[in-house]
Design goal:
- The complex is a heterotrimer.
- Chain A has helices at 2-28, 36-58, 79-106, 113-126, and strands at 61-63, 69-71, 133-135, 141-143.
- By secondary structure, chain A is of the alpha+beta class.
- Chain A is globular.
- Chain B has three helices and no strands.
- Chain C is 12% helix and 63% strand.
- The longest helix of chain C has 22 residues, at 2-23.
- The chains are: A alpha+beta, B mainly alpha, C mainly beta.
- At the A-B interface, helix 1, helix 2 and helix 4 of A face helix 1 and helix 2 of B.
- Chain B: Residues 30-57 form a coiled coil.
- Chain B: This is Lipoprotein.
- Chain B: The chain crosses the membrane at residues 6-28.
- Chain B: Keywords: Coiled coil, Membrane, Transmembrane, Transmembrane helix.
Chain lengths: 144, 57, 676
């Protein structure tokens, strides 16, 4: 009987290790980001970035907490161009939404979308160039 | 002794339950996601080029 | 507000002076008057001091001080009106260098002229050197006339007195010129007219989302008391001549837009008659209506527009509102006639006639040309629209001429049958129904695809030319707002065999990254036709292919479980030297062990008993296998049989998908000249 108890304890230990191993294995894994869909979204965003960058610089467009961008100060853009900046922002956001969704999908976890979005939200802001504006916790704006 | 065995089993079941819970909770690979995000952001914002340009300057 | 204030002050002043004029004819005197309080529903004034010093020469000095004036919610203290050269005569009063000072609000030179003979009062205010406002009042015992003439009026100054809210756009500049005339008798106003022009008007709100720059417009307006009691006839024309406005999300420039309103106004209603809005480059919208003044509710409204230019209307006005949808990148052309009617705030009917229009997606996902449409819509009843299209395409697949008799009932559409030419075949739609729900448009239909030749389809899709036909019966295709799912089976006859597609599903077909999912089973494909088509070395025999759990993202495969194997049955099984070379090349170096190059050279063709290949694609990696059962470290792709026999083994179990595709392309391209 004592033997059995030992076995049980061993099993228990094993299970604990197994679970830890499982966790670490999952943690170490890379996220898949090389699908055709992600690549094409990336390309579309890359080519748009050339147009957007002057508006990040001027402060007209800012980065939001949720991994999107928004028109922050339209006064920084000439009147006639405001509509086109509007469409740039909305096209970029469509791409960003699609990007987060596709990454979640590519890794067979559609439910990760919101976590991926918030991870991106932080990273965009983190990697933003000096002078660019981003949204802070209190829903106000700060400059890098 | 039988009682002991029962407890042991119970404990095992509990640990399994616990490990299952834990696995689900931290299943989202935050570090990997950050790495993936950085890689994509670098490409989209073409930060690599900038670095290279700066170096060449 | 200010104008009224000035008038009130001057009216008070004039009254006082008038009394003086009638009573005093002495050559030299001094006069002082103190009033404690004047109360009136419109204004209140406290501690009014009037002081007049009159010299013998006829010139004098006048000072009026008011400790506090309250006009509705505004209070001004220490208001002062002074006249340094003041002429008081029997019949007229002149004040040529007066000054009006309201601390914290304004401080203007003024002048006044009153002539009792001709019953004329003229007041002129000079807020700045280049700016003047002239108020003229002339009266008789039956009627009166007032004129306000503004020369170079600075709008920004006037607006400073208006109440302002944070959200409201702020005016930063603008000039006003023009005349306003009021005419009446002693029972009240009879006619009023305004002829004003505003130039260089610039305004913006804090966010810059509602802003205008350098705007010029002209306003002409007339209002006249009609024969009926308490009723007014009015008419206004507004011409927007210059400048630009961005009012999120619409941007417009003023190049000759014209709004013309006319109607009748009484205590209860505002009636619009024969009014129109002319948008330059778009068209003319004629409208009339009735609005009750009590609840600000539209009780009737009718709009008619003829020959409206669709392209400018869509790109300038509609498109900005559609920017988050897949219609944002559409271009629309053609002219349309529109009429709509509202009753008690509810839309009653719309009629739209679109003549020779087209809809083109700028990303080329779809296009419809030469559209003629007559679309009537009536609340609560069924109407039939007649829509026809000469040609178009959806995702590269050409569509032929089609005429659609669409039944419309509120927001539900129904179409009993539609025959749509697709390439050289026909897509028959039956029982098409669509409804607008919370999730957007949803639709479904039954269908049948009558044979489309694979030659034309593959050409249209710009993929490898294939022979055979595509046909199918589709019990139900439905769209739930995001995904198109096909319940049923698409049958393709190609390569002398059959291909059956089932569980076909399109996820977000118009989204940025459409996904396609399907299960495909191919049976008895002729290997000879297949290898010839794809310029792979010649092989004879028949194969079955199962492509399960296929998923394409952006039309490229990211997931499937493929299995290719020799079909059961009796048929010649031969494989050419070229094909073997290609198969081995596919497997990469060292994939082939059972063939020796020296041995290979002697024969053009070999015999085999079985072919097998498996590939489980997981994102970018193809996990390969061969004929079952598999060995541990290798798999058999071709199993020899007969003489001369050949066996091909594979060792490479994981191959990058792109690498595999590249190799295939290289092979088929290299081989092309040989085949031809």
């Amino acid at each position: 009987m004592i033997k059995r108890t030992i076995y049980c304890s061993l099993l228990l230990l094993f299970l604990m290790f197994a679970s830890i191993l499982l966790i670490s294995r999952v943690q170490a894994a890379n996220l898949e980001i090389n699908t055709p869909a992600i690549t094409s979204i990336k390309q579309s965003m890359q080519s748009r970035h050339a147009q957007l960058v002057e508006h990040y610089d001027s402060g007209a467009v800012g980065l939001t907490m949720d991994g999107m961008i928004t028109m922050r100060d339209a006064n920084a853009v000439p009147l006639a161009k405001r509509q086109s900046v509007n469409s740039l922002v909305s096209a970029e956001n469509q791409d960003r939404n699609a990007l987060y969704r596709e990454i979640a999908r590519a890794n067979n976890h559609p439910e990760w979308e919101s976590q991926i979005r918030s991870t991106f939200g932080q990273r965009w802001i983190n990697m933003a160039r000096p002078g660019w504006w981003y949204q802070t916790n209190h829903n106000s704006w700060a400059q890098k | 002794m039988k009682k002991n065995l029962f407890y042991a089993n119970l404990l095992v079941a509990f640990v399994m339950f616990l490990s299952a819970c834990v696995t689900i909770n931290i299943y989202f690979p935050a570090a990997a996601a950050e790495k993936a995000a950085d890689k994509i952001i670098e490409e989209v914002w073409q930060l690599e080029n900038e670095k290279k340009e700066k170096k060449s300057d | 507000m200010c104008n009224r204030l000035i008038i009130i002050i001057f009216a008070a002043l004039v009254l006082t002076l008038y009394v003086l004029m009638l009573s005093a004819s002495a050559a030299d005197f001094r006069f002082a008057l103190v009033l404690d309080d004047i109360k009136n529903p419109v204004f209140e004034a406290q501690q009014i001091q009037v002081q007049l010093t009159h010299g013998s020469s006829g010139a004098g000095r006048l000072d009026i001080n008011i400790a506090e004036i309250k006009v509705q919610h505004d209070v001004w203290k220490n208001v002062n009106v002074s006249c340094r050269t003041f002429h008081l005569e029997q019949k007229n009063i002149n004040c040529t260098s007066g000054y009006l000072n309201i601390p914290g609000l304004l401080s203007y030179p003024v002048s006044l002229h009153l002539d009792s003979d001709s019953s004329l009062l003229k007041i002129k205010v000079y807020p700045t050197k280049s700016e003047d406002w002239q108020f003229t009042l002339q009266w008789s015992h039956t009627s009166w006339q007032g004129v306000v003439a503004i020369n170079n009026g600075q709008l920004s100054q006037i607006v400073a007195w208006w109440p302002s809210y944070e959200q409201m756009p702020k005016l930063s500049s603008g000039k006003i010129n023009g005349v306003a005339r009021l005419q009446g008798d002693w029972s009240g106003l009879k006619i009023a007219s305004i002829d004003m022009s505003v130039d260089a008007l610039t305004f913006a709100d804090q966010s810059g989302l509602h802003a205008g720059e350098d705007i010029s417009f002209a306003l002409k307006s007339n209002i006249a008391r009609s024969m009926q009691p308490n009723q007014w006839d009015w008419q206004s024309d507004l011409y927007w001549q210059d400048g630009e406005v961005f009012w999120q999300p619409v941007y417009m420039t003023g190049d000759g837009h014209h709004l013309s309103l006319q109607g009748v106004w009484d205590d209860t209603n505002v009636r619009l008659l024969d009014s129109s809005l002319i948008l330059a480059g778009i068209g003319t919208f004629n409208f009339s209506g009735l609005m009750s003044r009590t609840g600000n509710q539209i009780s009737a409204f009718k709009l008619v527009a003829d020959k409206v230019e669709s392209s400018t209307l869509f790109s300038q006005i509609l498109k900005p509102f559609l920017r988050d949808t897949s219609f944002a990148e559409m271009e629309v052309t053609g002219h349309f006639d529109l009429s709509l009617r509202l009753q008690e705030g509810e839309l009653q009917s719309i009629s739209l006639d679109w003549d020779d229009g087209s809809i083109i997606d700028s990303r080329d996902r779809f296009a419809f040309h030469r559209i003629h449409a007559h679309i009537p819509w009536r609340a609560g009843s069924t109407t039939i629209a007649d829509i026809s299209m000469l040609k178009g395409h959806v995702l590269n697949i050409p569509l032929g001429a089609v005429r659609v008799p669409l039944e419309i009932n509120n927001f539900n559409l129904f179409l009993p049958q539609l025959v749509l030419p697709v390439l050289d075949g026909v897509l028959k739609l039956e029982d098409f129904s669509a409804a607008y729900t919370e999730n957007g448009w949803q639709w479904k239909f039954n269908g049948e695809l009558l044979p489309v030749s694979m030659e034309t389809l593959t050409t249209a899709l710009q993929i490898q030319q294939m022979h055979g036909t595509l046909s199918g019966y589709i019990p139900e295709v439905s769209y739930d707002g995001n995904n198109v799912s096909v319940n049923g089976v698409l049958q393709i006859n190609v390569f002398d065999g059959s291909v059956v597609v089932h569980k076909l599903m399109l996820i977000e077909p118009m989204g940025l990254t459409p996904h396609l999912k399907a299960d495909i089973a191919m049976r008895d494909l002729d290997l000879e036709l297949l290898t010839r088509t794809f310029s792979f070395g010649k092989m004879e025999g028949r194969v079955d292919v199962d492509l399960r759990n296929l998923e394409l993202a952006n039309w490229r495969p990211i997931h499937f479980d493929a299995r290719l194997f020799s079909s059961p049955g009796d048929y010649p099984r031969r494989i050419s030297q070229a094909a073997i070379r290609n198969i081995s090349a596919l497997g990469g170096e060292g994939a082939v062990v059972a063939i020796q190059r020296s041995f290979l050279r002697f024969f053009e063709e070999f015999r085999y008993s079985e072919i097998g290949w498996r590939c489980a694609l997981r994102l970018n990696i193809c996990f390969m296998g061969g004929i079952e059962p598999e060995l541990q470290s290798s798999y058999m792709l071709v199993k020899g049989g007969g003489i001369p026999a050949i066996t091909v083994m594979g060792y490479n179990q994981e191959v990058g998908w792109q690498e595999l595709v590249n190799r295939l392309q290289r092979i088929t391209q290299e081989n092309e000249p040989i085949i031809q």
